[in-house]
């Protein structure tokens, strides 16, 4: 176990795959910057791989004060044990007070292995982080400036704030797309520390036989406007109208789980708790009732337009514009209005 | 060559069916009104185990940690074809977070390993009440075993090694590792087989001692504890004689160090719970006609939402 270290840095584990930094690590730097400033400590980015020091400068421009770049042949293709071992050693040596990972399939495989080895707490899939005080009800002990780890739980029906008062570091994974992507600031300066983690070949307990990357066909996260269809669309044929409106707007097409499960559209388009989390400038929800699991993935959109035949659909409660009506009539009118805009 | 497989399953509230009744005014969840189900991805893990047994032989042991009622999931596993079932229940395990839960499960797996009953542990990728996916990797770490998460296919077990395909989120990879190990299975895994009607009838009456005691307390509310204990033992012995007693373990049976269990063993504390409150700030109602829709589109263009 590691003693709490109030001077410890805030750490972001920056994931990279095949030589490219994952967006989520950069998103975490914007939140990590806020946390480090609130605590008056450094923000350190940790990046592991076979050759990764070249990412250092970009990580600093995105908010890090220091980059620890661990380079080792065993870290070339991700596998749990060597990555976990390298991070556990770093945590034991530097005693950061906060360590955050992206809640990607890699982060969700790695973070629990690390937390278990360090015997600290870990909160999964956070949607927000903050610094605040805490009084433990059972002991009345007061703890200053802890990490509030805020996450949906119970299928998205509740939001829980979790703290980790004594067994540090305070560790969490954070969902992709929920933190702001920082703008690279070329004037920022920092230290890049490249090092070779001490790893034995027998720690690579997995043999990767072969692997294939299948690029996502849609990039919902990067879209300014999303037109999404749900169960109310009624069928694959009717989805044509959703696509037509999206084309007219230069938007991406999203979907609720119900539409994906019905086979009307590919899973890559799914928005919500089990799909992608998005925060576009405009989200047009067509025939989506707005179950809590869906709202968890789009509630942060700047403007929400809801089109639904059911006036009591919960989606209207998060909408800025609501149209109660038949989408087969409303969508053609909207497409028309958009096309005529100039 | 036969392999002994252990499947970790969880008795969970059906969080997809949470209605207003289930949410108390203070934002906490009233679990008692929610239907309890088999954690969906655990069923896929069980199916992987049952099909491996069909191919190679061996035994499938299902273990659940939870309240006495969780034995329902064990009966369901037995009906679907599992060989043995263990209920791990102990009040001292209540309020365990993922770290404490994984410690307790690792103690249980260690006992099974000492009894030569485990070559591989399988479980669902995550449980739908917490959705954390943390317990399986934490359990594997404590055992010092390799973990393979997000598995959809187990291709082969041979020569003390297992070969599996896992989803990496951005595609897939095929990996191989040595036994013993822990695998987590996603909902892309093989479709769970239904219970066999014959087994259903046979297993309906199986009970654990914890359930017998619970039923007795309801049946004989006036009886003193000695009478209850004697009667419970008698009924348990009767079931055991017919091979219908579900194994019951507590924390002592698995030699768990209590400092690592329950509330004391859990580093994370819940500070606050809020039910998801909709903004409900009121939306602008747009008439479903040409004037209404065109007006809205023009507003969105005017404020540069539509560029």
Structure characterization notes:
The complex is a heterodimer of chains A (342) and B (307). Chain A has 342 residues and is an alpha/beta fold. Chain A has two domains: 10-203, Rossmann fold; 225-339, TPP-binding domain (Rossmann fold, 3-Layer(aba) Sandwich). Chain A is 26% helix and 29% strand. Chain A is built from eight helices and 18 strands. In chain A, α3 (80-94) packs across α4 (105-118) and α5 (239-249) packs parallel to α8. With 307 residues, chain B is α/β, with parallel strands linked by helices. Chain B is 33% helix and 24% strand. Chain B is built from eight helices and 14 strands. Chain B has helices at residues 40-56, 71-80, 98-114, 135-143, 197-203, 209-219, 225-241, 290-302, and strands at residues 5-9, 11-13, 36-38, 60-65, 84-88, 120-124, 147-158, 161-167, 171-178, 181-185, 207-208, 245-249, 269-275, 284-285. Chain B has a ten-stranded mixed sheet with strand order 9-8-7-10-6-1-4-5-12-11, with helices on both faces. Chain B has a two-stranded antiparallel ribbon with strand order 2-3. In chain B, α2 links the parallel β4 (60-65) and β5 (84-88). In chain B, α2 packs antiparallel against α5 (197-203) and α6 (209-219) crosses α7 (225-241). The N and C termini of chain B lie far apart (65 Å). The model of chain B has no long low-confidence stretch (mean pLDDT 92). Chains A and B meet through α3, α4, β7, β9 and β10 of A and α3, α4, β7, β9 and β13 of B.
